[in-house]
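Hi Y.,

Following your request, here is the sequence exactly as I used it, all 261 residues.
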Amino acid sequence: MILFDSHCHLDDKSYDIDLNDVIERARDENVQGFMIVGVNVNTSLKAIKIAGTHKNIITSVGIHPHDAQKCSKDDIDTLIRLAKENPCVKAWGETGLDFNRMFSPARDQENCFMTQLEMAGMLDLPLIFHERDSKGRFYDILKSHGPDSRKGVVHCFSGTKKELFKYLDLGYYIGITGILTLKKRGEVLRSMISHIPEDRILIETDAPYLTPAPQKNKTRRNEPGFVKSVLQRLAQIRNIDPQILSQAIFNNTRTLYNIDF
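Below is the corresponding structure, written out as tokens. Let me know if you'd prefer a different format.
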């Protein structure tokens, strides 16, 4: 199998001591690409630094909806500069709406989100989307703030079948995490997997979060190497050879992020 962890947070402090080992373990599982996703200026800077010292690591820059209240023009200008100056920056995000935990007021989230949509369009970068409990507002903003040619992935999809079809109709990829492997929590997601076209699926760990089974029984911290468990469960559900599916998903990831490794 050939694997690409399309969404991880290797900048997290939990990897400060053993980052090189984590990356090597992933490579041992044939993870040949990593996307480290920025959620604010500091994490974007750290992700770029990591990418500068490791092969086949790309990054994004962005402001997570949790941090939207602190989103300033200076922050946006800094992220634009980072995107322009660093070839490893291949996407904008993680951006979107999260009305579940409400770490930032809804108005601030929406304003920050719309600003980032504009910036990604200006830079011609695909987007990495975060959505949770927005009750349709996320989709409404995407639909009303074009263009139709925008590329992106709905990271860690956990919505309804109706929402899934809406995102697919907009042309977006769907990011599948280790939730798929969990007996109870992943039941609804597993029921929708057959509705996602093969050329629109990405797999991800969201490491250090969302550890899949069976690794979840042994460790709390997720790692990019565990994306193999997501792929294997996905192949089982779709009744397809894991090697064939892994190549298709690897190609999807390269296409979205416009990379050639």
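Residues 96 and 113 are 5 Å apart (CA to CA).

Thanks again,
Q.
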